[in-house]
Amino acid sequence: MSTFIVVGGAGRTGRRITERLTKDGHRVIVASRDPEGEETVTLDLAGRVDPAVFAGADGIVITVEPPKDPDEAEAVMHAGVAAVAGIAAHEDIPVVLVSQIYLTRASEHPEMADRIAARARGEQALRTSGAQYTIVRASWLHDVGTDGVRVEQGDTGEGRISREAVAKAVVAALFDPSASGKTFELYDDPESTEPDWSTLFAALSPDPES
User: Fold this and answer.
1) Angle, to 10 degrees, between the axis of helix 81-91 and the axis of helix 113-127?
2) What distance separates the 2 farthest-apart alpha carbons in the chain?
3) CA quadruple 79, 166, 162, 5: dihedral positive or negative?
4) Where are the chain's structural domains?
């Protein structure tokens, strides 16, 4: 049994990741600003990130929604993610970050540009931290379960993705070394079946060295 810290594990996507890991027999500690339940810990990415929260973890998942306020988004999505990445690098704990599409084309959504920019800086902080990492860029999220997915790189696509598919990708990435050092986008693909994640991960290009 492995122990995983899911930052944002009480959210709509985080709950699915937590449930999937728990079902597979792993211990999951949900890190949240307002924790509820026994296997939880208080963590506010906008404040001081205590390394003790991650002691003994075999993996970390970060799946949080950016605040609408630009300064708060910067504090959470950039500074907060960077702080976790630094701890993970020091303790040699792999990280899977749930991000989003449009990070290289924020001008297409000016109403979200500040939040997208903060996410992009958080992604880059993770890449340069020295931690093992995988970045899963979700397209527009929805709650209808689907089996097939389309995996892309380069942030040029459009589409939607179910939260359940994101959860499956995150869990698969936690256990597959071929996903390490890679960033990819996820979209629904109704024409395909349940993916072989190892095959998909192995076919992806690693991120350029920063």
Assistant:
1) 10
2) 45
3) negative
4) 3-203
Indicate the length of the chain as a whole number.
210
Q: What's this model's pTM, rounded to 2 decimal places?
A: 0.96
Written as tens digits, the pLDDT of the chain (210 aa) is 799 999 999 999 999 999 999 999 999 999 998 777 778 999 999 999 999 999 999 999 999 999 999 999 999 999 999 999 999 999 999 999 999 999 999 888 898 899 999 999 999 999 999 999 999 999 999 998 777 999 999 999 999 999 999 999 999 999 999 999 999 999 999 888 888 999 999 999 999 975
Name beta bridge partners: 3.
Answer: 27
| Both structure tokens of 60 | 């970390």
Strands annotated E in 66-210: 95-100, 133-138, 140-142, 149-152, 160-162, 182-188
| CATH, domain range 3-203 | 3.40.50.720
- The label of the residue with tokens 């506010």 reads 44
